[in-house]
Amino acid sequence: MPELPDVEIQRRRLAAGGLKRPIAHTHVPDDRVLDGVSARKLAVSLKGRRLLRTRRHGKHLLVAVDGDDPLWLTLHFGMTGELVLDDGRGEPPRYARVILEWRDGGRLCYLSRRLLGHVGLAGDPEAFARAHDLGPDVLDLGRRRFLKLLADRRGMVKSALMDQSLLAGVGNVYADEILYQAGIHPRADLDDLDDDDRKRLRRVMRRVLRTAIDRKADPERLPRRWLLPRREEGAACPRCGGRVRRLEVGGRATYVCPACQGGG
DNA sequence: ACCTATGTTATCGC
DNA sequence: GGCGATAACATAGG
Q1: What is the phi/psi pair of residue A214, to 5°?
Q2: Do the beta carbons of residue A141 and residue A167 sit within 8 Å?
Q3: What gap in Å lies between CA A237 and CA A227, rounded to an integer?
Q4: DSSP label at A2?
Q5: CA–CA separation, A6 vs A227, rounded Å?
Q6: Separation of CA A144 and C1' C2 in angstroms?
Q7: First CA to last CA distance, chain A
Q8: Distance from residue A168 (CA) to nucleotide B13 (C1'), in Å?
Q9: How many angstroms separate the CA atoms of A112 and A11, rounded?
Q10: CB within 8 Å of A157: residues ≥ 6 apart
Q11: Does residue A21 contact residue A51 with C-beta atoms inside 8 Å?
Q12: What region does A96 belong to: left with phi over 0, alpha with psi -120 to 50, or beta?
């Protein structure tokens, strides 16, 4: 479920076990995930290098690579991507699209079932964010700047939350969760949100994302009173017992409790 | 066969 | 130029 919390968990996994190990070989079983770099260039760029540190920007994971020139490995997970670190024995996991083999025998596998994610190289994170038109990371966004972003935006609140060029990190599922917990309808027009609504929205957003990270982005560990486990037409709202409804907003499935979120 | 699915992008219309 | 809608990308599962 690669939204911000999921990517943060992947980042921590890599930071805990994938740094400072010299890379022996890079394999690219399916180069359709590569973005702006050939399999050969990726392999040459990484050979003998080590991953030094990680950074997350929205749903992107950026990994600094050692060497004379600044170089970052960039990973995006699409809807079905993940990282697997293993001992390198046996066949790589299914859907492994890029594999870094370390000299010590272990390996890092980038998996993507639907090939919707991308792997690439960048000179630095700021240039990468600019090139991909990413807004500020949503957890690195102060209240004043958040209010400013919303003040300059019109339209539906859910579309704004999910617009990665406005703020980076919130996806379809967590947008619904945040709006549910904030008591705001996804189709609400931003013009109809007052200052208290906007401040509450940011506060809830941070709480939801941080809680999800604390729970390892594991749906089983998320609070039972969240909407997330009830993403189904007709399910019981954990707060009021009313019916959860399915809508479409911005072409995406959207779940809402009309009673708790104002009917729209 | 049909529908659904956590993401992004290009394109069209207003 | 911004925003909403739509299709496309590719694959699996119900």
Answers
A1: -60, -35
A2: yes
A3: 7
A4: -
A5: 17
A6: 22
A7: 27
A8: 27
A9: 16
A10: A179, A184, A185, A186, A187, A188, A189, A190, A193, A201
A11: yes
A12: beta
Residue nearest to nucleotide C9 (CA to C1'): A116
Give the whole-angstrom CA distance, residue A37 versus residue A214: 34
Nucleic acid strand B within 7 Å of A114 CB: yes
Q: Work out if A253's Cβ lies within 7 angstroms of strand B.
A: yes
Distance in angstroms (rounded) separating the CA atoms of residues A195 and A161: 16
pTM: 0.96
Per-residue pLDDT of chain A (264 residues; tens, 9 = 90+): 589 999 999 999 999 999 999 999 999 999 999 999 999 999 999 999 999 999 999 999 999 999 999 999 999 999 999 999 999 999 999 999 999 999 999 999 999 999 999 999 999 999 999 999 999 999 999 999 999 999 999 999 999 999 999 999 999 999 999 999 999 999 999 999 999 999 999 999 999 999 999 999 998 899 999 999 999 999 999 999 999 999 999 999 999 999 999 864
CA–CA dist A96, A111 (Å, integer): 4
- Is A80's CB less than 7 Å from nucleic acid strand B? yes
Decide if A50 contacts A21 (C-beta within 8 A): yes
Lookup: nucleotide whose C1' is closest to A134 CA: B8
Bases of strand B lying below 7 A from some protein CB: 4-9
Q: What is the largest CA-CA distance in chain A?
A: 60
Å: A247 CA to C5 C1': 14
Neighbours of A21 (CB within 10 A): 18
Give CA–CA dist A92/A182, Å, rounded.
43
Backbone angles phi, psi at A178, to 5 degrees: -60, -45
